[in-house]
Amino acid sequence: MVEVPLEIYRKSPQDAAPHYDRFQIEVEEHTPVLTVLLKVRDEIDPTLSLRYSCRQAICGSCAMRINGKSRLACRTPVGPEVRLRGRIRIDPMGNQPVLRDLVVDQKPFWDRYYAVKPYLIPDPAHPLPEGRESPMSPEQVEQFRETPRCISCASCYSACPAIASDPSFLGPMALAKLYRFAVDPRDGGYTQRLQAVQNQGLWLCLRCNLCVEACPKDVRPAERIVDLKWMANQELGAREPGSRHAIRFASNLTEGGLLNERRLAVDTLGLGGSLRQLPKAIAMMRKGRSLRRHPPIQGLNEVQAIYQALDRPEDLAHRERQKGADVKGPRPPLPPKATTQSAPPPSKGGSP
Amino acid sequence: MKVAYYPGCVAQESGRELDMATRAVAPLVGIELVDFPNFSCCGSGFVDEANLTLNVALNARNLAIAERAGLTRIMTVCSTCQGMLSLARHTLKENATVARRVEETLRPLGLRYEGRAEARHLLQILVEDLGGAERLKPLIRRPLTGLKVGAFYGCHLLRPHDHVEFDDPEDPHSFEDVIRALGAEPVDYRGRVLCCGFPIQFVKPATAERIAGHQILDAKAHGADAMATPCPLCHISLDGYQKEAGRAVGTELNMPIFHFPQLVGLALGLAPAVLGLPRHLVNVDGALARIGAVAVPA
Ligand code: SF4
Ligand code: SF4
Ligand code: FES
Q1: Residues A217-230, buried b or exposed e (16+ Cβ, 10 A)?
Q2: Residues of chain B with CATH 3.40.50.11810
Q3: pTM of the prediction?
Q4: Do B50 and A250 lie within an 8 Å CB cutoff?
Q5: Is residue B216 over pLDDT 90?
Q6: What is residue A313's predicted lDDT score, i.e. its pLDDT?
Q7: Pocket test for ligand 2, best of A65, A110, A151, A211 (most atoms within 8 A of CB)
Q8: What domains lie within chain A, and their CATH numbers?
Q9: How far, in Å, CA of A264 to CA of A165, rounded?
C-alpha cells in the first residue's frame, strides 16, 4: 500500500482562477490514477469533473497531466509517480481551454485533425475497384508504421510545446494522421497533402520528441513528422526556409566536414535575411566570437566518398518507399471476384 | 578515463567557450581527452531530414574512427550531437537496409563500425561513469553557495528515451544532482525539459524566440539566478538570442546562461576567463559576484 498525496486542479466556469484541492488516499502501488480520482469523486467530492470511459487504454478519453506529463490516467499507476515526486499533481490537458476541472474543450485538437483531411482522396489514375476490397501487400501495410494504433487521446497534443507557442502548427497527432493517409496506396492526395502541410507549419515541429514519450500507443509522431519533412523535400524541393535549411545543411558539410555556420545562414536566409542577422554578428564579434571558418577536417575525402555513395535518390530507400506515384507501388493482383453460385470453392483459402 | 572527445561544430566555432571549459575541466575530474581531427559534423538533426542513410553513415564513420583507436566512449558536450550519434547507433541496430548500405559504403574506405563505441555526454559520464556527486564533492574549491540554478537539459539528451537511454525523459534529475554537488541550489521548473526553440530559429524566428523567452521566464518565476545547459544550441537560443526572446515575451530577461562544464569549472575554482565566460552575450557578472568569483576581462 502507498499513501498518495493528491493535488487536483479545480476550476468551475464561474471561478476567476483555478485552485488545487488536496486529498490523502491510501491505495495499492499499482492502482491507476483514474481509479484514485474516481474514489475521490465517489467517496469525497461528487462535484469533481473528469472524462473517462473504457478504463483500459482503449477509448482515449482520460488523458490529463500527471505530475506534468501528459498521460492516460487509466494506465498510469500511482506508485512510481509518488516515488518520483512525493505527491501526484493532476492538471487538465495542455493546449486546450478548460471547461471544468479536468475536462477540456478539445476543439483545437479536432479542428487540426479535420484540417489534414483524414480520409482517402480518390485517385483518378487508380480508381478503387467497385464492390470488392482493395487489398494491400504486407509491405504496403508496413508503410503505415505505428500510426494506425492512434486512439486520438490527444496526450501528444497536450504535451507539444510548438502548439503552445504557435497555433499555426498542426500538432503531432494530426501530422501522424496525415502521414498515414499520404502513404496509403489507395490515396490520390500525396502532393496536395504535402503542399498543404508545407503551408500549415510542418516545419514548426521542434523535434523535442515529447509527443513520442507521451503517446500511450507508441505512435511516435515526431518520427513520422521527420518522414513528412523528408517526403516534402523530395516532392516539393527547397521551397521555404525549413526545407531549404535541411537540404543546404546537408550539402554544407561536403566542403569541410564540419558546419560552416556563416555559409548556412546565407544559404537558408538568402542575402537579405542574413544581412538582418548582421547586428547579431557584430554583437558576437565584440565578444571575440567571430565566425572563423574551420579548416577542413582530416579525411574529408572519406566524407565526400560517403556523400558520393549515398546522396542519391535510391539511397533514400531506407524509408522503404519512394516518392510520388511510386509510393503507391504496383497494386497486388486482385483475387478473382467471388462468384458464390457457380465456381467450386478454391482448394486453398486465401482471400478473406 | 580515456575518451574520444567529440566537440561538435559549434564548440569549435561560434561557441568556443564550451570547448575551452571542457578542456579545462576534464583533467580535473579525471577524464583524458583524445582528439580526433577527422571527426565530421553529426548532422545536427537537419541532415537526416534530407537523407537519413547519409546521416547515419557520417556518424558510423565517427564511431568507427574512435573504435579503430581502441576507444569505446565518444564524449559529446552537446545534447544534439549526443542525440544524433545515438540515433545512428539505434538505426544501425534496428534497420537492416540502412545497416547494409552503410557497411557497403564504409568498407572501401577501410572503415567498419562494430557497435562497440557509443556516444556519452559529459553529464552522463560524470553522473553514471565517474560517480557523480561522490566524485565531485572532494574537488570543490569554490562552492556555488547561494546560487539558484535552473538546469536546462536540451531535448536530444533525453528523448527519444529508447535512443539515448539516459535518465527519465520527462522528469530527469542528473543535472540537478550535479548542481547540488557543486554547492548551488537547483530550481524545479517545467521548462527544464522543454525545447529552447533553436530548431526553428531559421524557420520562424518569432516563434523560436517566444519559446526561448517562455523557458527563461519559467526558470525566473521559480527563483533562478542563472541557468545552465549541456547543449551549445540551447545556449545560442537562451544566451545568443536572449535579447530577442525578451522582446518576444515583453520583458527584459537578464538571465546568465552557463554551459554545463563552465558551471562545474567555477566550482572547481577555475577563473572565469579560462572558462570563456566573457564571451557570452548576456553578462554573467551578477552570478559570479554571488559566488565570489570576480570576472576578469578576456
Ligand atoms: S516533436 Fe514536434 S510534434 Fe512532437 S511534441 Fe515536439 S514539437 Fe510537438
Ligand atoms: S498519437 Fe498517441 S498520443 Fe497522440 S492522439 Fe494518437 S494515441 Fe494519443
Ligand atoms: S478511460 Fe479509456 S483510455 Fe483511459
Answers
A1: bebbbbbbbbbbbb
A2: 133-290
A3: 0.92
A4: yes
A5: yes
A6: 65
A7: A151
A8: 2-104 (3.10.20.30), 106-124+137-200+214-236 (1.10.1060.10), 237-324 (no CATH)
A9: 26
Closest CA to A8 of A98, A75, A83, A95: A98
Contact A135, A42 (CB under 8 A): no
Architecture label for domain B2-122: Up-down Bundle (1.20)
**In contact, B180 and B186? CB cutoff 8 Å:** yes
A69 close to B171: Cβ distance less than 8 angstroms: yes
Summarised one tens digit per residue, pLDDT across range B91-145 is 999 999 899 999 999 999 999 999 999 999 999 999 999 999 999 999 999 999 9
What is the widest separation between alpha-carbon atoms in chain A? 89
- The tally of CA atoms less than 13 A away on the side-chain side of residue B207 is 20
Grid cell at residue A21: 484541492
Q: Which residue of A has its CA nearest to B153?
A: A208
Which burial class, exposed, middle or buried, applies to B166 when counting CB atoms under 10 A from its CB (0-12, 13-18, 19+)?
buried
Element (H, E) at B270: none
- Which cell goes with B86? 545515438
Inter-chain CB proximity B101 and A310 less than 8 Å: yes
A 10 A CB-CB count for B279 gives: 19
Largest CA distance in chain B: 57
Which three three-digit cell numbers place residue B84?
Answer: 544524433
Average pLDDT over residues A265-294: 79
The rounded distance, in Å, linking the Cα atoms of A152 and A156 is 9
Q: Which ligand is nearest to the CA of A152?
A: 2
Of A153, A163, A210, A223, the residue with max ligand 2 atoms within 8 A of its CB, to mutate for a pocket test, comes to A153
In the block, which residue shows the cell 545560442?
Answer: B236
What pLDDT, on a 0 to 100 scale, did the predictor assign at position B260? 98
CA–CA separation, B89 and B113 (whole Å) = 10
CATH architecture of B133-290: 3-Layer(aba) Sandwich (3.40)
Cα distance between residue B278 and residue B272, in whole Å: 7
All cell numbers assigned to B43: 548532422
pLDDT of residue A200: 65
Domain with CATH 1.20.1050.140 in chain B: 2-122
d(CA B225, CA B219): 9
Cell numbers for B113: 563500425
> A-B interface: how many C-beta pairs under 8 angstroms?
202
Ligand 3 atom nearest to A72, measured from its CA: 4
pLDDT of A30-60, one tens digit each?
999 999 999 999 999 999 999 999 999 999 9
Q: What is the pLDDT of residues A227-278, one digit of tens each?
A: 999 888 888 887 778 888 888 888 888 888 998 888 888 887 777 777 777 8
**A residues 151-180 lying closer than 8 A (beta carbon) to B:** 161-162, 164-166
Does residue A337 register a pLDDT over 60?
no
Closest by CA to A182, choosing from A123, A255, A268, A133, is: A123
Cα A331 from chain centroid? Answer: 28
Q: Smallest Cα–Cα separation from A56: which of A29, A34, A36? A: A34
Helices B242-249 & B205-221, crossing angle to 10 degrees? 80
